[in-house]
Amino acid sequence: MYEIMHEEVIDFPHEKAIPILFDFRNVWKIHPLVERVDFISPGAAGDHGVGAARVCNFYDGGGSVKETIIEETPNSFTVQMSEMSLPFKSGTAKLSVTPIRGGAASCVALVMLVEPKFGPLGVLMTKFVLAPKLRGAVKGLAEGILVHGRDPTVLVSKGGRTYRGTEANPTWVTV
Questions:
Q1: Residue 81 in 3-state DSSP?
Q2: Which among 106, 143, 151, 169 is most buried, taking Cβ atoms within 10 Å?
Q3: Is there a contact between 28 and 157 (Cβ–Cβ < 8 Å)?
Q4: What is the pLDDT of residues 138-163, one digit of tens each?
Q5: Where are the beta strands (DSSP E) in the chain?
């Protein structure tokens, strides 16, 4: 297994960041790589909780990953990744938002454990190509929580471009 970890600190209250992270079916609103989500099933807490499942479809046009919540705490959830176009045989990803500075700020973190396909070549590809891209995605996710949290009409999507409005009628904005 190969571990990918990354943390980003955002100047946004923890109590406001958690509901945004736990909006499991709407990650496309804050994640720069996710174009749309096909929500498959609710979990123990409705739209999230153990058992909730979604398919995240990426902007590359053909990539996707099915994610099913296998563990949830008040500050985090862990998904089992399957049916993925990523070059992994299997994997889990834990996303968390923990309070810092007395809850006035938040630390957004990803811990991903993956088993790369293609043997040693897959490990190298994961280390030098995919891990940096995933670390950048966490940075984008943290920025998405911050921007969308400050103004829910602003969405961070479209491959990292920020806009207000709908997918069909976006107004590009600079934040």
A1: strand
A2: 106
A3: yes
A4: 888 888 898 888 888 777 655 556 66
A5: 2-10, 34-41, 53-58, 64-73, 76-82, 88-100, 105-116, 154-157, 161-165, 170-172
| Token code pair at residue 138 | 């966490």
**What is the number of residues in the chain?**
175
47 burial type by CB count under 10 A (0-12 exposed, 13-18 middle, 19+ buried): middle
What is the per-residue pLDDT for 71? 97
Quick: pLDDT tens for 2-17.
999 999 999 999 999 9
**Nearest to 145, CA basis, from 6, 22, 5, 4:** 22
pLDDT in tens, 23-35: 999 898 888 888 8
